[in-house]
Amino acid sequence: MQDFEPDGRLVADTYPVTELPLCQLRLMDDARFPWLVLVPRRQAISEVFELEASAQQQLWREATEVGRALLEVMEGDKLNIASLGNVVAQLHVHVIVRRREDAAWPAPVWGHGRAEPYDPDGLADMRDTVLAVLEGLDLASGE
Questions:
Q1: How many C-beta neighbours within 10 Å does residue 20 have?
Q2: Phi and psi torsions of 15, nearest 5°
Q3: Residue 108 DSSP class
Q4: Where in the numbering of this chain does the HIT domain appear (predicted)?
């Protein structure tokens, strides 16, 4: 969709990585956690049920496949997938690889300590990792 724009708070807190069939894939600027944010390219949508059924399935496909592959590559212990929207109403889905030794385990990552922004090298490395993970995935719509 040409008129799609992510919420300004998402833009401020994340880095763009790539475009998936439905979502813009972004990286949360917190190097403590492998944390991606998927933002469906739909304006004025805040809830999953507002998407057409095929887009709901595509959102789930993208979140779970990207998460599964990232979990494996990052050697995580748990994958957290969540859509909250309490602060940013625009529909977006968090995909977070968790490790038992991470800064927030076993609590949620939200509101735990201060974010540790990526330095330029760390950001480039994480983007490269995410893009490499995506190479082997078939995220095409099942329609």
A1: 23
A2: -115, 140
A3: -
A4: 36-105
Superfamily of domain 8-126: HIT-like (3.30.428.10)
Tally of residues, the chain: 143
Domain segments of the chain: what residues? 8-126
Report the predicted TM-score, pTM, of the whole model to 2 decimal places: 0.94
Q: Is the pLDDT of residue 28 over 90?
A: yes
Question: What does the pLDDT look like over 110-121, one tens digit per residue?
Answer: 888 999 999 999
Token digits of residue 41? 């390219």
**Distance, CA of 26 to CA of 35 (rounded, Å):** 9
**For residue range 50-101, what is the model confidence (pLDDT) as tens digits?**
999 999 999 999 999 999 999 999 999 999 999 998 899 999 999 999 999 9
40: left (phi over 0), alpha (psi -120 to 50) or beta: beta
Q: Is the CB of residue 20 less than 8 Å from the CB of residue 62? A: yes
Rg (C-alpha) for the chain, rounded Å, is 14
Rounded Cα distance between 42 and 89, Å, is 13
